[in-house]
Specification:
Order of helices and strands: HEEEHEEHEHEHHEEHEHEHEHHHEH
Radius of gyration: 20 Å
Shape: globular
Oligomer: single chain
Largest sheet: 6 strands, mixed
Strand content: 15-25%
Low-confidence stretches: 9-40
Structural class: alpha/beta
Distance between the termini: 26 Å
Number of strands: 13
Length: about 325
Amino acid sequence: MPRLRTRLAGALLSVLALTLTATACGGATETSPKKAAATAANRVEPLTDTPEPKLPVTVTGADGRKVTVREARRIVPLSGSLSEIVFTLGLGDRVVARDITATFQQAAKLPVVTRAHDVSAESVLSLKPDLVLAETTTGPDEAMDQIRAAGIPVLVVDPAQGLDDVGPRIRTVADALGVPAAGKELTDRSEQRIAAVRKAVPQEKKKPRVAFLYLRGSASVYLIGGRDSGATSLIEAAGATDAGAESGLKKDFTAITSEALVKAAPDAILVMTKGLESVGGVDGLVKIPGVAQTPAGLDRRVVSIEDGVLLNYGPRTDQVLKSVVTQLYGKGGAE
């Protein structure tokens, strides 16, 4: 996702500089985690009543630009999270393309207009959109400028950082699409569902320590999330402590070392499903230096969430949180 890509950029460059022997096509044997480790069915749940946009509207994007939306019949959301919001508002039939990170089933057949996450202006313009939704991290800038130069309204939205962003992002998109009432309804539904999951979180005397690891075994990239990784809000909502942040890691992501893992001392490890698969499942994960020596490694306590939804902080965040809680406290962790 563009937001995560921005956070990882500096860390990845430093790690890849140390792993020049890794090949892009190589990788560990992949083994799929148990079904219990996956999030709920990879579909969004649209509102019952399909809203009718009342346009034109003029809104101000996160980049400070005023954007007038006159039509919303051909929408191109340039992040999986934004696509999820549009579809869940009930306007999925108006979406004509998707970003590579929009992995839910209803969007699966749409043409992809990004290449390795970078936006292809030519691909976007070929679909004749009347509105493009982007995030401040969407790029490259040249592509976005080319889309604007063609006269296409581009609304830029702040990327999600945590649970508190769920409602504001939904309302921002809904207002731009001329469906503010649907935005309020979806915000209320999403926040109520998140609150219900949080209420059911087991109250343990000692909060479990959870480390968020970003793994790409094919490139020998192994990172541990710090204070601004984007996972802290989710971990804390699950009644746990972000082990990386609490151990003093100030960067978004830091290369994994045995010393860093020992200091973080996680009781559980949170990973993206494809990342876990890329290192050979839990068997491969515990072979990463330092992992086996942590409480999480010794207990093989791993929480695995599908890449395209883990840090979206949108209408399905309650499902993500519920999956984290179930795996963290109950049976059904990744194996």
